[in-house]
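Input record (one chain):
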Amino acid sequence: MATIELEIPDGLDPELTKRRLEAELSHGAAVQELADMLQRSDHAISPAAAASAAGVEQFWRRMIATYGVYTATEIASLRGSNPKNRSVAANFAKRHGVLGVLRGRAKVYPRFQFRGPDVHPDWTRLSAPLHEAGWSAARILYWAGSPNGYVDNREPAALIGTADIDDAVDAAQDSAHGFTG
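The corresponding structure, as predicted from the sequence alone:
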C-alpha cells in the first residue's frame, strides 16, 4: 500500500476530503489500470489528477448504469438499417445532435437522447444552447448527467420527457451563458 501526502486547500475539511478520495480510488480495477499506466509512463501524475481521472471514470460508469447506452450497431437496428453499417449512427448523430463518447474502443450514445428510433425532442431543446455555446460532446453529456442546483439537484437528463423539462432547458441556457445559478 502506498501513502500519498496531499496539501488540502484552505476551506476544505481534511477528513471529508480524505474519505472522498478513498471512495473515488477504491474501485480496484480502475485503480490497477491507472497504476499500470503510470508505471509505463515517464511522466509524473499528481494525486489530484489521479483522483480526478477516477472520478470521471466513476461518472461514466454511473451514467451508463443509470440511463443505458446504445452502440452504433444498436442505433442502426433501431433505425431499421443493417446493424453492420456503423455509419448509420454517425450520420444520425451528426444530423440530429445525438452525442456519444468513447468507452474502450466503441462509441456509445446515452439512451436518454432517444424516444424510440428518433431523437427525443426534449434532448434537442436541452442540448441546443450548450451546442451553440461550443461545448464538447463529453462536456454536454457530463452536464446532463450531473446533479444541477437549478433543478433541485436533479440531473437534467432525468427530466427529459417530464413536465420539468422547461426548468432543465432554462438551466442549460444559463450554463451556456456562464451563469452558475
